[in-house]
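agent: user wants the structure for Small ribosomal subunit protein uS15 from Rhodnius prolixus. delegating to structure tool.
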Amino acid sequence: MGRMHAPGKGISQSALPYRRSVPTWLKLSAEDVKEQIFKLAKKGLTPSQIGVILRDSHGVAQVRFVTGNKILRIMKAMGLAPDLPEDLYFL
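agent: tool returned. relaying tokens verbatim.
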């Protein structure tokens, strides 16, 4: 977001953690996370909604660090990926 009273453009952005390993306090395994993704995808949720639920309810910060794949790739492997990409669907 730009600045209102200065010519600068700002540098706000989200930052991923440097360590890409699974936190020691996380009790879910990769199979448990994939099973949760499968259940939520069957309900018709989008990948971003699944990520928010996993983050807020189950404590999974980054699915890619736990499973090795992104949510959409896991959904594609299960045959549950949406026909249209999520960003185009919501236009």
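agent: one observation worth passing along. Residues 11 and 87 are 24 Å apart (CA to CA).
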